Amino acid sequence: MKLVSWNVNGLAAIMKKDFLDSVRRIDADILAIQETKLQATKLDPQMERIDGYRSLWSFSIRRKGYSGVGIYTRVEPREVGYGIGIPEYDEEGRILWMDLGTFVLFNVYFPNGQTGEDRLAYKLRFYEDFFAYTDRLRSAGRSVVIAGDFNTAHNEIDLKNPKANETYSGFLRIERDWMDRIVARGYVDTFRTLYPDTVKYSWWTYRFGARRRNIGWRIDYFFVSRDMMDNGWIQDAFIDNEIEGSDHCPVGLILNL
Fold it and tell me: At which residues is there a site annotated Interaction with DNA substrate (predicted)?
């Protein structure tokens, strides 16, 4: 099973580029997208109906043209959820999940903390509450896959200029400590576990020719509960730098179920 996650940075904008061709090239069983920046009234048939896929959506109702996540799936879920029951997160359209029987897949657009102390506090609160929710699922015996834009680079290998970014949200020590906690709680960063020394990025600023010069950050991840790695269900993980159209590129996971 091929799972792919991609922050599209505005679905309406990327639809005017090569998004449909990119979806065909990616050829995922499940494609999770973040930062759709859509309202339900702006979801047109071309966005909603891609051949071979069912689509699921969670929209921001707190602010227009903001946040939002979606899933295109060839795999029929047992159950779908549109948040974790906490309005301050769910009303920003940040979480969409599917129970696939073998595991529960979460598509998450984690908050960006760069707009001030209030949003940084919100981001850290989000981490705590979200992983408390997934921990409860794991305590009930469920396997968990978490896909999305975490808006944090974990270690120095995960961004081009770590020293220059130590005082900026996305690489603050307090945010990186949270990534450490996620790992300590029994979640596995699939790409870094399989490729411990590989330097690859998933996001580049639009400025300064950053993508062409590969001055980037790895902030898009697939984390899985430790049991999935231990059971040999993780066949491969990848970052697809060839797919363009957004300031992020797709990241993926191949499952052997």
Answer: 248
| Active-site pick, 72, 109, 133, 201 | 109
Which of these ranges, 7-16, 82-91, 102-111, 113-122, has the smallest mean pLDDT?
Answer: 113-122
Residue 70 has pLDDT above 90, yes or no: yes
Q: Catalytic residue at 127?
A: no
Whether domain 2-255 has CATH 3.90.1520.10 = no
Note the pTM of the prediction, 2 decimals. 0.97
Tell me if residue 149 is catalytic: yes
Q: Are strands 144-149 and 220-225 parallel, antiparallel or unpaired?
A: antiparallel
Domain ranges of the chain: 2-255
Return the amino acid letter for 102: T
User: pLDDT tens-digit profile of 162-207?
Assistant: 999 999 999 999 999 999 999 999 999 999 999 999 999 999 999 9
Q: Tell whether 220 is in a known binding site.
A: no
